[in-house]
Every structure is written in structure tokens, then in C-alpha cells.
Amino acid sequence: MSILKNIYLFALYSSLSIMSAFCFSSEIITVRVTHAPPHYFQNAEGHWTGSGVEIVKAVIQKAGYEPQYLSVPWMRALMLLEQGKLDLMMGLSNTVERSKFLHWIGPVRNEEMALIVRNDNIDFHVQSLDDIARIAHERKIPFGLQVGAFYGEHFELRIQQEEFEGVFTPNTHLKQSLGLTIGGRILGFFENKAFITYRIKENPAYKQLVVYPFIVNSAPVFYGISKKVSAEVYQNLQIAFEQLEQDGTLDKIRNKQW
Predict the structure, then answer these.
(1) Which domain, by its residues, includes 191?
(2) Are 209 and 119 in contact (CB under 8 A)?
(3) Predicted TM-score (pTM) above 0.85
(4) What is the CA radius of gyration of the chain?
């Protein structure tokens, strides 16, 4: 058999192996979702959709797998990732602590964390975290922080300082932050700007809230992939993401009106 023929057969078998890995695997990738339009929500038929869901679905299917969506709270999802009981979580900041149990793919999009207050508090004068501390001390009412959320390295360092004692109180989920803000027990909280803007526009329960023009952190977010996932699966997902990013598929999904 000629050398050229050997090379041809090797290339053919290699191509078939790649196609098998990317096209014919029936492996399930479990993905954390939550009701957070426009990124994640269920349509009239009860199927998960939104910009974030459609992007991750495209990546997973390009890699030859199928997504299975699991609706679980934020902190529980992080615990499941660490335990290997969840494969992928969207919208995560890349931190040193999380990197102990996660691989990263992305960045997928940019996220702005904005200050959310009751609409009768829109006259706050906030240009820095120092103003946040001043207002909390003057009013003797704290602001809320979601447990497990990341607001940037600068924020994490600043709130350890003495002047921030009593300025923030932990909240476990958005509904708690909403209720405490409307009830006047906290002055406001920080949340994904795109997500909360959509809620204020579409959900009557949020009509008393307003997005204050102060961004505490603006940074890229990633897919966090559990390190319990095999190296092969992680590599396939990473390659699929890069291919779809380069050919414009992901931008088409991002730019769609949801």
C-alpha cells in the first residue's frame, strides 16, 4: 500500500472519529437555568429559551451532545457543580475560588451589575461605594447583597474595610431583595442590569423599582464547566464554542430581539 494511500486512510479515519465525537454522541449535558428573561425563560409551550439558553444549546449540540435544563437556586447550582452533579452553569464570573472546581469557556457576554432602588429613592446621590456607605449610615438602613454573587475584585476588597460595617446585609434570592426593598428594610441591591430592566418593564411586581445610574461592576461572564466533566467533553464544548463564535452564529443569537 502506497504512503499516499496510508495518509489518505489515516485522514479519513481521523475525520470519522471527529464526526463521531461531535455528531453522534447522545451524552447529556446538564445546564442550570432560572427564570431570568431575556437570557433564560420558558415559552408558552413550557420550553426553555432566551438568548442565553439558545446560545448554550447551539454550543452543546455543535459539540455532539444534548442539553438537559435544571432549574435550581444559584448557590445550590454552584454546590452541584463542585460535586459533579451539574455539568454547566451560565453567566458566571471567573474567580480564583470558583476555578478550584470549574473550567471556563468564553467570555460569552458582558454583564453590568447595577444599583436597584425603590423609585422614590431615585434622588440618591451615588457615584461611588463611599456614597453607598454614607447613605446607609445616614438612613441607618443597609443595602442588600446576594449570597454567592460576585461584584468585582474592587468591591470585594472595599467592603472589608471598617467604614462598610453594617452597610450590607445578605439576601439569598431576588424575591427576598425585592420584598425587602419595597418594604423599606433595605435601601436597594445590585443586580444584572439587562435582567432587572426586563423585569421592571414586564412584571408588575417590580414596578416600584428603578435602575439607578450607578454600575458597581462591568465584566465578562463565562460558562463554568464542572471539573468532574471529562477532559474530552470539556474540549469538545470549547472547540464548538470557538467555532460558533468565529462563524457569527452566536452573534446572530445575541442580536435577536427576545
Answers:
(1) 112-219
(2) yes
(3) no
(4) 22
- The pLDDT tens digits for 23-35 are 444 599 999 999 9
Q: Which tens digits make up the pLDDT trace of 127-157?
A: 999 999 999 999 999 999 998 899 999 999 9
Q: What does the alpha-carbon distance between residue 154 and residue 103 come to, in Å, rounded to a whole number?
A: 23
Whether 164 and 235 share a structural domain: no
Q: Indicate the length of the chain as a whole number.
A: 258
Shared domain check, 194 and 72: no
DSSP string, 32-65: EE-SBTTTBEE-TTS-EESHHHHHHHHHHHHTT-
Query: Do 46 and 64 share a domain, yes or no?
Result: yes
Burial of residue 232, with CB atoms counted within 10 A of its CB: 0-12 exposed, 13-18 middle, 19 or more buried = exposed
Count of the separate structural domains present in the chain: 2
Residues 102 and 118 in one domain: no
Largest CA distance in the chain: 86
Rounding to the nearest 10 degrees, give the CA dihedral for residues 179, 184, 189, 192: 50
Classify 71 as helix, strand or coil: strand
- CA–CA separation, 214 and 188 (whole Å): 12
Q: Show the cell assigned to 120.
A: 422614590
Residue 235 grid cell = 474540549
Residues 6+ away with beta carbon under 8 Å from 20: none
Report the C-alpha gap between 70 and 121 in whole angstroms: 37
Is 35:203 a contact under the CB 8 Å cutoff? no
Type of residue at 43: N
For residues 49 and 171, state if they share a domain: no
Judgement on whether residues 156 and 130 belong to the same structural domain of the protein: yes
- Give alpha helix (H) positions in the chain: 3-23, 51-62, 74-83, 129-139, 153-158, 174-182, 193-202, 231-246, 249-254
